[in-house]
Amino acid sequence: MRQQDQGVEVAHGHPQNPLQRVAFGTSGHRGTSLKGTFTEAHVLAITQAIAELRASFGATGPLFLAKDTHAL
């Protein structure tokens, strides 16, 4: 399933399909784009949540991100 979002196509997983659900564990969100469990829409939602949380407590410093070397 895809949705047009400001001229950008965003892929969505199907939560009804157990094989496409994101798992939540002690190491964070687990999933893979190769199986449809970790989609662009999921990454966008996490990014938005982080931005809103930082704004809510006035964070102005840098946010450091690291690249996962595993296949996404």
From TrEMBL:
Pfam (any one):
PGM_PMM_I
An MF annotation (GO) of this entry: intramolecular phosphotransferase activity
Q: Which domain of life is it from?
A: Bacteria
UniProt organism field = Thermus scotoductus
List, for all copies, the residue spans of the domain called Alpha-D-phosphohexomutase alpha/beta/alpha. Answer: 22-71
Which segments carry the region annotation Disordered? 1-30
The UniProt family comment states: Belongs to the phosphohexose mutase family.
Task: Give the record's GO biological process terms.
Answer: carbohydrate metabolic process
Name the InterPro entries for this protein. A-D-PHexomutase_a/b/a-I (IPR005844), A-D-PHexomutase_a/b/a-I/II/III (IPR016055)
Q: What is this protein called?
A: Alpha-D-phosphohexomutase alpha/beta/alpha domain-containing protein
